[in-house]
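Example (one chain per record):
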Amino acid sequence: MSSDRVAIITGAGRGLGSSIALSLAEENVAVVLAGRSVEQLAAVQAQIAEKGGAAIAVPTDVTSSASVEALFAACVDRYGRLDVLVNNAGIAGLKNLVDLDEDEWQRIFDTNVRGVFLCTRAAGRHYAEVGAGRVVNVASVFGLLGRAGYSAYGASKGAVINFTRAVAAEWAKFGAQINAVAPGYFATDINAELRANPELLAKVLRRVPARRMGDPEELANVVNYLALHAPDFLTGQIIAVDGGESSV
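Predicted structure:
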């Protein structure tokens, strides 16, 4: 089966990133899986191949400009084009501000903000030449809300949100679109420990009007829409997928 579109997904080895990659592959998109873990990327690649999809795995450090350049070169070398970038790679950290050291603050910003900047810049240079292309940034509801213990993470995701808006204004003139999703709590392997603790889970869900975590496929569906099906006139928007958490 030949693919008519090509997408790079960062942080594709686990969690929401792997769900997004699998969902895009089901839409006949050739996916380039980027992440740090060779083993995790290989597992997702195998899942896609089993279903007849097209995928390559490219171990990538999104905080390194050289690594990002190699990722985009590998994509174009293999498929000859790029249509979609999903900036999903991100890290979080729970620590009160007075206990937060500079290295931890910088570590979060390097991945969550510098990584988005480097990958988006690389995509934008390609899109400007061809006059088309899309980016979907995975921000967070914590970029819209204040949450104790997440000053660095929330600030980084807030930066992603306004970065998305600014770039949308720049890119509209050459026909490329960039939007973001702001996910709330989703049931993934990353929060398996939290979900296994009934008291802690109940505390978290009290803040969510839907009283549940999202299914990763629910977020993947929104990403797919923005990446593949949304009108070109839709750009610079932030869509919260959070069970109503940001509305109360």
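Caption: Strands lie at 5-10, 29-35, 55-59, 84-87, 133-138, 176-183, 238-241.
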